[in-house]
Design brief:
Length: 382
């Protein structure tokens, strides 16, 4: 078997390949365009479609702004759309990036227009050619041509709860998109700070599904919307695991409510959560101290794994450094490669990337001392 890891950093895209998940060949930073300008771009989102081999990369160029690049040969060559793949409708009233600046009131201004600042998430759907994109300012976009062009989802933008959506520490954006192979019209999204929403009709309507999730950073401990959700994943048997600004939560039916499943974790706080692609009830999180230093608990990097839907969590750290480690894992800095014996991957803010086979359960270093790792995606290539 062979494996490809896409590593998005604050200074470009790196790739790593391996035949055994232990020894890796690193390349990059990749200049996606002929002049190499994208080699220094911030890469907040990547996606790989195992069915077609297509790779998408959201590059935020300091010279030309954001764009979505694609490759159909595992990163050997790259193509950019002839025109901007995303552009807000010209007649759309201007909306501030952070509603706290206007006390939750829209202030249209003829001299201002909505602008795509950054693409935070790319996700292939089960339909042929379908790609969803989560964007800052908080918006959702859909492509039906494999990521060449995207259509703005007006129904989410106009949701009556939008006045409660504000900017989290990273930005006001849809940062999580989870599609459903069993129900192509079902999509779940999460945003900071806005909450969790799902559609059952392919994006025509959206329902907030954060019942039971409590907060300690606002006057209402259980608001209807406006939650700071960091990441959401769906386990192989349909249970949902959400990492919020506070606890980790679980639900079998998002509309019915969530249960706190953080009791056996060293810290409730964290950013990333990843589900096993085939094993029921199995997922992994990377806890972070809730204090503002945002270091791993005890200054030791470690993954924590559950095999019972979050009832219990166990440290999974064989092969990781035992000495003090002062960098954590961002919300999109972890993934699996979807293989039958899946590999787990994560990258840190100090530029280290690690991989472990599910059966091997030992972490191996993929790359060290890269720029700040923002996102990691992996696929089995043969």
């Amino acid at each position: 078997m062979a494996y490809l890891v896409l590593i998005g950093t604050r200074k470009g895209l790196f790739t790593a390949t391996s035949d055994d998940r232990e020894q890796w060949v690193l390349k990059g930073p990749h200049g996606l365009d002929p002049d190499g300008y994208t080699a220094v771009s911030e890469i907040y989102a990547t996606a790989a479609d195992p069915a077609t081999g297509r790779i998408l990369v959201a590059a935020d160029s300091p010279h030309f702004g954001p764009s979505v690049w694609r490759s159909d040969d595992l990163g050997a060559t790259w193509h950019e759309p002839d025109a901007a793949p995303m552009a807000f409708p010209q007649d759309l009233p201007y909306r501030p990036l952070d509603f706290s600046e206007t006390a939750g009131i829209d202030q249209p201004d003829a001299d201002q227009s909505n602008t795509v600042k950054r693409v935070w998430q790319l996700a292939f759907g089960p339909q042929e050619g379908r790609v969803w994109a989560g964007v800052e300012p908080t918006s959702l976009w859909r492509s039906d041509d494999g990521g060449r062009t995207f259509t703005f989802n007006r129904s989410l933008w106009d949701h009556p709860q939008h006045t409660t959506w504000a900017s989290g520490g990273g930005g006001a954006a849809v940062h999580t998109i989870v599609t459903d192979d069993d129900d192509p019209a079902h999509v779940m999204i999460a945003m900071s700070s806005g909450g969790i929403y799902e559609t059952r009709d392919d994006g025509d309507t959206w329902e907030g599904v954060t019942k039971g999730i409590t907060v300690d950073y606002g006057p209402d401990p259980e608001p209807e919307s406006g939650h700071c959700i960091h990441k959401v994943a769906r386990t192989a048997d349909g249970t949902w695991i959400a990492q919020s600004h506070g606890p980790v939560w679980r639900t079998d039916e998002p509309g019915s409510g969530w249960t706190n499943v953080s009791a056996t974790l060293p810290s409730e706080f964290g950013f990333a959560v990843v589900a096993h692609p085939t094993e029921a009830g199995t997922a992994m999180v990377w806890p972070v101290q809730a204090a503002m230093d945002r270091f791993p608990p005890g200054h030791r990097i470690a993954a924590w794994r559950t095999t019972d839907h979050g009832d219990t969590w166990h440290e999974w750290s064989t092969g990781l450094p035992a000495e003090p480690y002062f960098a954590n894992v961002m919300r999109d800095g972890a993934c699996t490669d979807g293989a039958p014996d899946p590999g787990w991957y994560f990258g840190t803010r100090c530029g280290d990337v690690w991989a472990a086979g599910d059966a091997d359960a030992t972490w191996h270093l993929v790359a060290a001392h890269l720029p700040d790792v923002l996102c990691v995606r992996a696929i089995e290539t043969r």
